[in-house]
Specification:
alpha+beta, seven-stranded mixed beta sheet, four-stranded antiparallel beta sheet, 17 strands, 24% helix, 18% strand
Length: 400
């Protein structure tokens, strides 16, 4: 359904009809834009009327080229295999893996060049040609992390236990019921959101029988459309009064903006789960709810992203990297079968040389993930199948 954004001068005041679901619905009876009305018709100070850059694309017209895809040659695959065996022979822990001790003589420079796309180009690229069935779990992880070291050598912890990898796969009701498993460990759809950090990597060990497509949307394009028609929404998104649920931690909630102007870039950073709750993480009692205006602004971001997203079907062996500060992402729901089971491994990365500047309000979470002094790192080669682990609401590892 096409999205129509009405001018705010035609809006009524907020009503109780705001769609507060984890994934909002846009249908013929949706008039969510009518609920937004403020007197602030100017953009916040420092925010541009429009962003013009290669990353400001729409999935409707996006032209992908060689800068977005790399099909590995036999020589590239051989280099990855040899580098993996070389690293194993060193007998050092995974956290010490780097481009220095994972030599890729011909593939490395190609990856370095492609990595520029993440920060200066369209914001993502895909590597194809690996067959994970040919390797052990350990070798798959080493090859993936080794390849990623040419994209961003600084890697982020994805939970409070020091796990550096997250296995995204439906673990099934034998591990925890559907109403307990958080999104990374179930088959549900996920709304548009961002994670923590600069770059996200996914390595596809297996694909679903049906569904499970990844979707990316340009934050610049989302911003451009909203700024053009609804500058009052930009005002709302840039305010620091958005209440993020911490699900039982102390303090019980935090506040910050969703939209930032940093280092000449416009950055969206949010996840709907701590803002609105979800079926597996209901919003905690006793903390402030979002206003109707905030809910409608959040929904508007989702619907504009949906309208301009590109849909990517990752095949077995595909590896994708994207700019988490410049692109929003979501996932379609999926169904596994005995022969086809969706399984991806996620990395959080940072490129010290080319990364965008991190907004001040996000630096605490960023530092907690990326600074490891005195903290253990774990590299699970298989999914963690502990009920408490896959059900916890408190983890800040991107439950969307």
């Amino acid at each position: 359904m096409a999205l129509t954004i009405l001018q705010s001068s035609a809006m009524s005041t907020a009503t109780a009809g705001s769609d507060r679901h984890w994934i909002p619905s846009l249908n013929a009876n949706s008039h969510y834009t009518q609920y937004l009305h403020t007197a602030e018709q100017e953009l916040p100070a420092g925010f541009p009327p429009q962003i013009t850059c290669e990353m400001a694309w729409s999935g409707r017209t996006l032209q992908l080229d060689r800068s977005n895809f790399l099909t590995l040659l036999p020589t590239h695959i051989r280099e990855l295999e040899e580098a993996s065996e070389h690293f194993k022979g060193l007998g050092i822990p995974m956290e010490m893996l780097s481009s220095t001790n994972f030599p890729l003589p011909t593939l490395g420079p190609v990856l370095n060049e492609l990595a520029k796309q993440i920060h200066e180009g369209k914001g993502f690229f895909i590597v194809r040609g690996l067959n994970p069935d040919n390797y052990s779990g350990e070798t798959n992880v080493i090859m993936y992390v080794g390849m990623s070291s040419y994209i961003g050598e600084t890697r982020g912890r994805q939970d409070e236990f020091g796990n550096m990898l997250l296995h995204l796969t439906d673990l099934g009701s034998a591990i925890a019921p559907e109403n307990e498993r958080q999104a990374p460990y179930s088959s549900v759809s996920q709304p548009f959101h961002t994670d923590i950090g600069s770059i996200i990597g996914l390595y596809t060990l297996g694909e679903a029988a049906h569904g499970g497509e990844s979707r990316l949307a340009s934050s610049a394009t989302v911003y451009n459309q909203i700024a053009k028609m609804r500058p009052d929404v930009v005002q709302l998104l840039a305010k620091s009064n958005w209440v993020f649920d911490r699900f039982g931690q102390t303090p019980g909630y935090s506040t910050r903006p969703l939209l930032y102007r940093e280092g000449g870039k416009v950055i969206l950073s949010f996840s709907r789960r701590p803002l609105l709750g979800s079926s597996t993480s209901p919003r905690s009692k006793g903390i402030p709810d979002l206003t109707n205006e905030q809910v409608e602004a959040l929904n508007l971001v989702h619907f504009v992203a949906e309208e301009h997203a590109v849909t990517i079907k990752l095949g077995k062996g595909d590896v994708i990297f994207w700019n988490n500060l410049g692109l929003l992402h979501c996932r379609k729901g999926f169904t596994d079968s005995a022969e086809h089971k969706r399984h991806l491994i996620r990395l959080w990365l940072h490129d010290e040389n080319n990364a965008w500047s991190i907004p001040q309000e996000l630096r605490g979470a960023w530092q907690d993930s990326y600074i490891h002094a005195g903290r253990q790192q774990h590299w699970p080669v298989e999914p963690i199948i502990d009920r408490e682990y896959v059900s916890t609401q408190q983890r800040a590892s991107g439950h969307a």
